[in-house]
Amino acid sequence: MRFSSHSSALTRALTAASLGAVLALPAVACGQDTTSRNEGVSLRLGYDPYTKPGVLVTAIGGVGGDSIRAIVQRDLDYGDRVTVLPAGGEVVTSGAARVNYPLLAKIGAAAVVQSSVVPGGLRVVLHDVGGKRVIQRRTFRLPATRDTPAWRLAVHDVADEIERWITGTRGVAATRILYVKDGKVRVVDSDGENDRAVTTTGTTLSPTWHPNGRTIAYSVFGERGTQVMVRDLNSPTARRVTEAGAALNITPAFSPDGSLLVYSHGEEEGSDLFATTLEGGLGRRVTVGRGTDNVSPSFSPDGRRIAFTSGRSGHPEVYITDVDGTNAELLTDFDFGDQSYRSNPDWSPDGRMIAFQSQVSGQGFQVMTINLRDRSIKQHTSEGSNEDPSWAPDARHLVFTSTRSTGRQLYVLDTESGRLRQLTRGGGARAGAWSPPLVRSVTASATAAAGRDAQPE
Amino acid sequence: MIRITRVAPLAFGLVALLGAGCRRQQPATQPTPAIDADSAARADAAARERARQDSIANAQRAEADRLAAERAAAEQRLADARAALTAAIYFDYDRADITDEGKATLDAKLPLMSANAGLRVRVAGHTDARGSDEYNLALGQRRAAATKRYLVLQGVDANRIEVISYGEERPAAAGDDDSAYSQNRRAEFEIVAGGENLQLPTQ
Question: Between 20 and 30 A from A325 (CA), which of A135, A235, A378, B49?
Answer without folding.
Answer: A378
